From TrEMBL, chains A, B, C, D, E, F:
Molecular-function GO terms, alphabetical: amino-acid racemase activity; hydantoin racemase activity
Coiled-coil segments: none
Record's catalysed reaction(s): D-5-benzylhydantoin = L-5-benzylhydantoin; D-5-isobutylhydantoin = L-5-isobutylhydantoin; a D-5-monosubstituted hydantoin = a L-5-monosubstituted hydantoin
Enzyme class: isomerase
Protein name: Hydantoin racemase
Superkingdom to which the source organism belongs: Bacteria
The protein's Enzyme Commission number: 5.1.99.5
A Pfam family annotated for this UniProt entry: Asp_Glu_race
Organism per entry: Marinomonas aquiplantarum
Family: Belongs to the HyuE racemase family.
Length: 243, 243, 243, 243, 243, 243
């Protein structure tokens, strides 16, 4: 099967990082197609960045559709434009936050989320509420490491991340940790070795869920909320969507 | 004071309609500055339309900021990009759904929402949940009138709208009705005359809340979730946001 | 328009304080009619005080009705007898807690409440739940300053209040502060100058919402929960309500 | 033990009716002291009636306190002034709605409430939310029988009540029925015979809970929310509360 | 009346302890029939223990049924197999956690739970959610005293228990304490003397509720969720249930 | 990898049916080890059946552990003894209801559940609440087909099932259907062909999630709620658990 792995920010280095993680976990028969937008912010760290990134992300979904991919992954922890992408796509679309929360709730009673900037905490809490996982989450913590600093994470930042994971475990009772940024996917192995509880990365979790849906023959339902978008005029830089 | 009234879709006729409503309700000292994007869909009827409209909407917020407006109104019932706009703006930003729900909860115990397409119902329910008004709302109903058909609404469509309002009252116990589309703002007067309960339009409600915040000297808090966005590279058609 | 500003406790000094705040914020065309009950407690600090104050408060609503006021404000942070007053009145009735929560949720993602006595904390939490604002409130803190001490607040008490506001900001992440007592309305200006986030007073917020509803032509819905009370015998000191 | 059975409305006939029910269920060693206010409405059917009845109800609580009763029951389905009464009293205070909901949840998975007027439905729903029993309640239905008509209920009204009970069972899946008015306590026996599920009356339920708390040696906690009220001036018709 | 008091673990000493408490509180006319299973764990401290204990517990319910008991009490704080027991029994079945939460919510606004092992905390929280009492509970604390150590509790363990009760009061605002283990029922008296707030034991609370239901003539509803189990084949060590 | 597929009821025919489904979906490298208990009910249709089935189910988990399986699936829609099994096992344990809800929420906004007997509806609703999926579920419907009748389902029963699926779609707005019984897993293909929306079976969904967790290297967290059970005496027919 073909999985389009969309990095919604314009940092190609980050796309590479997550593609390495994705390929390491994918089945041999799964082809990972990494995808980086040509328009938008270099990192996504607030609602503004997310709103700007959304339209270019949908262009990538359309590209993936033309390439007949069997699933799309939106690899940014805010799951930007997930509902819109599900309307546009025929194949399933999976957000990495939703994927990680699902895996965490299968192997722990209460999990924690450790993410980048403090200002993204309410966004994580909103996703937990939207998906229904807030009762399973006992801790949402920020490291205040900027997203782009994760690309070449130094030891100081790594220790900061590990410290917050430990605080989630010891102070908040977290039994598993969800890493709250696609850019952390290359740190899972080391953290898993150094911490006494499971560490979950949304990118690899999403790859497995995409494969699962494909093997189950399940596609996004097109009858209700995720039904095909309505044809209408679009102008200006979005005129290509007109129909 | 100056209020920027943003119609997030590209239909200038709809901008005019809502500007007439807004001016009719505004204080004499309030200047309404209508604003229509140059890019995007002619109407917003699903998550896809909303996602595409968001970036151009933020360009308009920036324009309003340059014009030193005292408040911004996002006049689309999905309150698109509201959090992003609050990060970007210095002045308060008000969504018409949030505004209408607030007014409704002051004058009724249980209100109903009557909106356009069935497929937008979950989006309305999500907003009710997000804002905390779901316990005050007893009815969310669709007319399946497309947004653009509201511009020159014929009698048949009007009767359809009225029928759903009556159903909300009689079957669901609604004590007030929130109209679920900015394009319905010119129908408030007639519906108010013909129905036994208050009818609430978000555009005019938002104008009053914008004036209220201004007179109270209240601005969006910039310390937490709505703090200023972080400077970073942007490329492609969003390169103007780079800093 | 005429707004009846009801202080539900019998302290005329407090009525004066809040009338000054209300007039300072009201439009020039708005007449503020302060109203103090002849029966009841000098301050309202628990459910008992609130229950005793309710009947006299409803006498004042009836008085306002006779004077053809266009809106009634109940200026006590517990919003006592709000539902009953809405049944009795024709014009809208606004509680200052509900008003303050609404304004706070328009300009912050998470607000805090700083109030008087610790024993009123559960009452504030109950109002947040009832109105649906509990998800937007991250902090409810008491200063343990008695209500009447607010009339001539000394520096020590002011510092105590400021300290709790700072704790709400720094420890709980509050992005705006709602002052939890009508008697604090004269402290808004000083606190706003000394603290980095918006400070919201329910009295002035309610004045603006009353003006807003009036200008929108909205009245309390009389069809359901707030429908006119049923005529019936009343005896003893409430015989004047018989009909 | 001595239980004060307070009927918060001024209808002595209704007090007698409920006293008969209470005595029929009480232990031989329990003395039921019926209590009717000298001030207030003849029946309680809306928030206005409830607010007016509250102060006189608290006078009765004080009377009961002087008589050293071991528990107070507030026998009106809205549980008026319950929190205030708990602050005032030393002995436990039990509301009949809370009592009935508790008994219902012990013997059924989902119960229904059948009450008097439609306009009281939101009040019942609010109590269910406040006490936490909303998940156990699958049906809240009104008969639109006025409270006073229950005193000498004719066959037509009885059939109406039975019809709504049956609808709650058959349409809503109710496994037990809570009768939503103290004035229905004399109908429990007949309804229990004619309906296939348990029928619960709050008056008798409250008597049993009052006896239970007494035998367990449990009193209202006076350390927090229900701590003693604060001494302060009261004027006018409530001057007797000054201290 | 006859109440079957089931200790779901196989420790006969613990059955004796709780039978002493139960008898001390029961009416003279109430016969307490203690019941200990012949199969299962010596204490119940996790979901595994609870699952193993359930089948033997249901054998005891059947025994009680043969003895025509008027109520069954399941005296383990996890309320194991409560729904199953209600399906099986004709008489009411009461769990001690549900009973204790009900009594606590009648005499306090916010109560705390102090229990045995930390690992049982999520189970307590789940029960609070299931029964709807989570809003009334402000504190769930573990002492990490093993259940069997309660049989001959030494002073050190008692002090530990008292310390957590005090922390619930002082740090969490608990106004009453629910003891989270049937094995603590003999400590209620001493703790009540030494602590300033009511202490509630589920065993005695359940005895009173069982007597209350009996005197009210209320039985478990057999029409819905608790309807009689369906006849079907059972094999192996459960063949005696076949029918 | 080796997946133990546990049918918690004693019907070997049903075990075979679900094993066929499981093998058809599993990867070639996955070995499905079907497992049927020697003790317990032939079908699980109420809380009583579930409680009796739990201990034998845990014996099977222990067997699987001895066989070094890499995951255990509990293939009964009530997810019986799931928490207990997670405490006992080292490998992940997946319940088919949780698995099906997760898959449904990835491909639909609102899904429906169509199950066997009406009396199991509250159990399904409880699971939705426990797992946090209640906001995504718009419909829970029963067919009143007994579980064992599914083994050789005739056309009449199949039509009944299809009718309820259609009602969920048309009346309740379901965008996907979760089949509420492991015994329905062989009907997925036919229903998927005849209905316009995705049909989800928990058995196959659980197989894919088990494979996913294995490939991600994730195991049940043993630090908190699912930590190893505490050694203690067990007697009678459970003496083999003593340690």
């Amino acid at each position: 099967m073909k999985i389009q792995l969309i990095n919604p920010n314009t940092s190609a280095d980050m796309t590479n990082t997550m593609a390495i993680s994705a390929r390491a976990t994918a089945l041999p028969s799964t082809q990972i197609i990494p995808s980086t937008p040509e328009h938008g912010p270099k990192s996504i760290e607030c609602a503004f960045d997310e709103a700007i990134a959304s339209a270019a992300l949908l262009d990538l979904i359309e590209q993936g559709k033309q390439q007949n991919v069997d699933a799309h992954i939106i690899a940014c922890f805010g799951d930007p434009a997930l509902d819109a992408a599900r309307e546009l796509a025929d194949a399933p679309v999976i957000g990495i936050a939703e994927a990680a929360f699902q895996m965490a709730s299968l192997i722990s009673y209460r999990f924690g989320v450790v993410t980048t900037l403090s200002r993204t905490l309410p966004a994580s809490e909103h996703l937990l509420l939207k998906y229904g996982h807030q009762t399973h989450c006992c801790s949402v913590r920020a490291t205040d490491i900027p997203v782009l600093a994760l690309e070449n994470i130094d030891n100081q930042a790594y220790q900061l991340l590990k410290t917050e994971c430990l605080a989630a475990i010891e102070q908040d009772g977290a039994e598993a940790i969800v890493l709250g940024c696609a850019g952390m996917s290359n740190l899972v192995n080391q953290l898993s070795k150094e911490l006494p509880i499971p560490i979950i990365d949304g990118v690899t979790a999403a790859v497995k869920l995409a494969e699962s849906l494909h093997q189950l023959g399940l596609q996004t339902s097109k009858t209700g909320q995720y039904g095909k978008r309505i044809s209408k005029p679009f102008i200006g830089r979005y005129a290509h969507w007109a129909s």
